[in-house]
Amino acid sequence: xxxxxxxVRDADLDLxxxxxxxxxxxxxxxxxxxxxxxxxxxxxLRGLLRAEAREAGLWALPLSAELGGGGxxxxxxxxxxxxxGASDHGPAALGSASLSDVTMLSRHxxxxxxxxxxxxxxxxxxxTCYAMTEQGVPGTEPLLTATRAERRPGGGWTVTxxxxxxxNAADADLVTVLARTSGTAGDxxxxxxxxxxxxxxxxxIVRDLPVLGxxxxxxxxxxxxxxxxxxxxxxxxxxxxxxxxxxxxxxxLRALRWVGQAQRAFDLLCERAVERQGARxxxxxxxxxxxxxxxxxxxxxxxxxxxxxAMAAVAEGRDxxxxxxxxxxAAARTLQEVADRAVQxxxxxxxxxxxxxxxxxxxxxxxxxxxxxxxxxxxxVARRVLRSRQPGPAVTPA
Length: 398
Description:
This protein is an alpha+beta fold. It has helices at about 5-30, 30-35, 40-55, 75-85, 90-95, 100-110, 110-125, 240-275, 285-315, 320-345, 355-370, 375-390; strands spanning about 130, 150, 155-165, 175-180, 190-195, 205-210, 215-225, 230-235, 275-280, 280. The strands form three sheets. The chain has a four-stranded mixed beta sheet with strand order 1-4-5-8. Strand 9 and strand 10 form a beta hairpin. It is globular and about 80 Å long. Homodimer.
């Protein structure tokens, strides 16, 4: 590979990022209020946007080319993920929302699962969700999972239990559920991931769980749902290993998208400061507004390198617990902080329906809890760092 090749490829990637950014800005932003409401109208609109993305050659860019995706490597996709994620609806409209699930099932799904589902997931024909958290059980304590999967006499499993705060469950065709297949609550072994078709008898949506007024999270129930043996993801008992692998990629992707949304809030802040005229001139001349600009830019430029470092570690297959913990926490805090400062500069207009700022702030605030609370990541990263500083066993001189 020559330096000239690298320059051309970087230029191509930059052009692709600009095309994705333009698509999200021109085609997705205007429809966000309708997409936020969910339901049949939102699904129809999402389908139209997906058709436009395919026609534009922007569909499923980071997914396997063999399965119908764009084949873009993870490290190259990082800047694209920011552009897509500037809207919560960008990844779904552009076909990359299934990346975590497709990666997990490609690596750990049975031959039948890979054959029946992967290509249809990449095409957007099927949608998935991931069910891990349970009411009354801390999300940071998966060992206490109460949902169970019992072996059927004729083969396969019967799943019983409830999960909540499951994203996009109402539109999903498949749900990957964390269930105990052996042992008792608290045992480290005996947890498995099982892929359940949502059309199965006994599966139901219990209720919508609005988050700060926004739909998209659900409580679901498995009432003795029968699932085939080959719908276990990996081997029984491997859930924590596979889920940890999945979470590292998923959290990094979400962190990239949160940085993209923080950049969007920052751009709105700056535009407002320059354009808004008061009795004493533009807001941009006020020192306190300049402070909002400075602190927001500082947060953005501090978070972005951490997130891209995490993506590089995940793409290389390294143990990225520290990098991902730093990235997830920094990106979530940055989105909340920058959106909050933008709201402050907009004043009352930033609280109403005429800007995306309420939604951006809501995403930032919930991101600090729903994808692993800040406290979990702070403790996990600190423990790992301190363990690495522990002195090794004493060596007896020869």
